[in-house]
Amino acid sequence: MRILGIESSCDETAASVALDYTKILSNVVASQVEEHQQYGGVVPEIASRRHCENILWVVQKALDDADVALDDLDGIAVTAYPGLIGALLVGVNFAKGLSLATGKPLIPVHHLAGHIAANYITHPELKPPYLCLVVSGGHTHIVEVLSYTTFRIIGRTRDDAAGECFDKCARSMGYPYPGGIHLDNASKHGNPKAFTLPKPKISDNAYDFSFSGLKTAVINLIHNSKQKGITLSREDLAASVQTTIAEILTEHTVRAAISLGYSTIAIAGGVSANSGVRTKMQEACARLGYQLYMPPLSLCGDNGAMIACAGSYAFDAGIRADCSLNAYATMELR
């Protein structure tokens, strides 16, 4: 079975061909990071335009690298939701056109299901059910993975996502976009106990997250220090922020695993590349004797391989769409 996966939910135009679920024959990503850096974040209109410019050659290169022709494909998978609506529409409409022209089945994929599936590519032994922390710039969820295509969200952020908190704190500290990676690097040279930062809790759901208070506390700390003429150590503050976020994510996920009886945990999404998050999760799982799965750094961010893999399982489950498929900026994972 050969499935083409297309991803265009944010600022990466990506395509990949997967063979028999987890063997990746090609993985092409066209990033727009350098262009968006000058604006301090992703500009949706620019992202959509670049997707229009890139998608044809990205998909063609993915097919060429895999040595696969369109006629060899069994299906065409595409991220249909959630994400930037203009960006999503480029990928969805391109995939619909390919499906119509070739007669190949069209497979809609939820972006978060793609991130979860990234773990299967390097850990084919990982099988549902298990618990997964899906954490990125726009999403922070604790998900019960009931099957390869069935999910139940048991915890989520009530406001900012963890990745958003990383980036906004980093921006306040003077690091360029994308700030998360710069904060991560700086944290390795700082004292994580230099600053005591809040760990907000949600009274009606022990698994839910809130990061807006932490973000505000960091911004206020920086502003108050400037007003008093106090110079803060960016490395110490970076280390304190990273440790606090990593501890929050780990504590909530482990609490859910213990309560629900899971001893297998996975993490996924862009923030799963963060060294502090990976270390804290590894330490907690080792202490409890749990099995932890993490995608390689190359598959943490948005990519076509994860969509091709998730699309393969969706294809096997009989999930199909016709040319009425539309993109949606928000969509529950279920």
What keyword list fits this structure?
single chain, 334 residues, alpha/beta, five-stranded mixed β-sheet, 44% helix, 18% strand
Write a concise synopsis of the structure shown.
This protein is an alpha/beta fold and 334 residues long. Helix content is 44%, strand content 18%. A 5-stranded mixed beta sheet has the order 3-2-1-4-5, sandwiched between helices. A 5-stranded mixed beta sheet has the order 8-7-6-9-10, sandwiched between helices.
Q: What Rg do the Cα atoms give?
A: 20 Å
What's the helical proportion of residues? 40-55%
> What class would the helix/strand composition place it in?
alpha/beta
Low-confidence stretches: none
Task: Please describe the biggest sheet, giving its number of strands, its sense, and whether it closes into a barrel.
Answer: 5 strands, mixed
Number of helices: 10
Ends: how far apart?
A: 25 Å
- How many beta-strand elements? 10
Globally, the shape reads: globular
> What percent strand?
15-25%
Provide the spatial order of strands within the biggest beta sheet.
3-2-1-4-5
Q: Please write the string of helix (H) and strand (E) elements.
A: EEEHHEHEHEEEHHHHEHEH
Quick check: average pLDDT?
97
Describe this structure as you would to a colleague.
It is built from ten helices and ten strands. Helix 5 runs parallel beside helix 7. The mean pLDDT is 97. With 334 residues, it is α/β, with parallel strands linked by helices.
